Amino acid sequence: MTLALVTPQPEVFRAYAIAAAGLLVAAGLAIAWIGRGGRRDVSGVRRTWIGWLIMAPLALGALYLGRVPTIVGVGLLALGGFREFARATGLYRDWTTTIAVYLGVAGLTAVALVDDPETGAPGWYGLYMAMPVYVVAGLLTVPVWRNRAKGQLQPVALAIVGFVYFGWMFGHLAFLANAAEATGYLLFLIFAVELNDVAAFTCGRLFGRTKLRSEISPNKTVEGSLGALLFSLALPWLLRGSFPHFDAVDLVLTGLIVGVGGQLGDLSISFIKRDLGIKDMGALIPGHGGVLDRLDSLIYVAPLFFHLVRWRHGI
Amino acid sequence: MRDQGEGEPDAGRVGSGTGGGNGSDDGSGGAPDLGGAELCESGIGAPGREGRAGAGEWTYAPPADLAQPLAERLKGFPREPEMWMYALRSGAAAAIRAWLGVYHRFRIHGREHLPTAGSFVMVGNHQSHLDAPCLLAALPWRTLHRAFPAAAADYFFQSLPTAAFSSIVINALPFDREAKGEESLAVCRALLETPGNVLILFPEGTRSTTGELGRFRSGIGRLVEGTDVPVVPCRLVGAHRAWPKGAAIPRPAKLDLHIGAPRSFGHLPPGRETVGTICRELQEAVAGLG
Known about the structure:
The structure holds two protein chains of two kinds. By secondary structure, chain A is mainly α. Chain A has ten helices and no strands. In chain A, helix 4 (95-113) runs antiparallel to helix 5 (125-146), helix 4 (95-113) runs parallel beside helix 6 (153-176) and helix 8 packs antiparallel against helix 9. Chain B is α/β, with parallel strands linked by helices. Chain B folds into two domains: 1-68, no CATH class; 83-287, Glycerol-3-phosphate (1)-acyltransferase (3-Layer(aba) Sandwich), CATH 3.40.1130.10. A seven-stranded mixed β-sheet of chain B has the order 1-7-6-2-5-3-4, sandwiched between helices. The longest helix of chain B is centred in the first third of the chain and has 21 residues, at 83-103. At the A-B interface, helix 3 and helix 4 of A face loops of B.
């Protein structure tokens, strides 16, 4: 197993850490200014800010320490995300199926950590990509083992969605940590996806007229969405230092993946929540809801970006 | 959901409450069915969710505590069947039973009096924090997650560490000692309506400072009057010496738990007098053990 204990791209890391600290301080000052003397109720946004104060150092710390803490951290997030999904859908009452998915996600993390036995490269890519085959095959045997048919399709289907989307697809983020330029890729993705959210919200507030998907997320607007897309298309050029080897095609595709994928990821979790009749997927992060409420866009974007990078430059 | 009390597979079992529900669980444990529907109606427990799973059918059923942070979930009741909580509780129970056996030379007398089917109440004398773990240790493993010692909400569920210990390790039911505990009694009644649950009560309401058995308060009488729920009197001897109120850590004194024959009070006409009679009779039964 290849151990890299400190980020191989300290300059990129430093730039993002300073930007994150600056944004947090600026946001804190803005919140204090808006809520000064009790003029406006800022308790909700303050909670969200406190949530970021907790999350940002954790994320930056893991990324700074290198690939192992990053992969383990993403693995834990994937486990937490699946747990929320299982609770929200009621799947968590089916312990056998849930444990099978947990084991699958833990297995993914292990596969991302070990070296490829053929090439010696960090992360066993072939097995990682084959993991859904084995986990889905395993999940399908649960009803067979139980010798029961009635009511078995739904838990198995939920478990497969849970594993593939929240474990495997999101887990691509962990596998991305095996890239030499992982720090730049990961920090860019996290930043871009969150800023895409902020851009959609801000543009929607300023120019929003037309509802984007009225039955899924009534507060989102077409104008907000287009504004966010434009912003996200520009962002890779602005943060080009994250991946100096990217050419124009890479930068455009990256912008599209973040701009379109980020919003689709957001809407995907939204329709799941709406179907289940819940507001948040959990309550782990103060002011944000659950892990999945925070990671919704990143889950969708991570595998798309991963395969762009792998296709164009290799991991 | 597997009904641990009955020990039968879950096919065809209808999960009506917080603990029951969708899907099934083979061999990896199960959830307590607390009769959540009744709790819902009383407004204490989970809000009702229509269309919960019937026999083999599936409808989405998020837990009632989905939107609550962990700290609140630990203080709430009834609890959702959390896998990690069951695992920790099982591990803690094994450690506590070993501790009691080795350090306190804990012995149980009259275990054969414990009912083997249905729900029942255990009432005991209250001298120390060892009482609830001792009564729990007398129960078979399969009832571990379905045995609920009532614990003072104002003492055991105030701070997060004690609430975590009380809910995870002891599986305690937060009992409101104020306002005659009517709401808490409603929770207890709902609990006893589901077969397989065990409620552990210390009717003195607080730990004895002298080691003498105090007067039984009316709660136990109000809980079981007019019902045939078996009440098992228990007397733990040695706990006052082992861990008196105010002492920081327990001493290695010997502990003996005496379990008496169960009795029920359905034949008595409900009323204030009966409540008094039940309390007196149980107090005498506990005092007469050992």
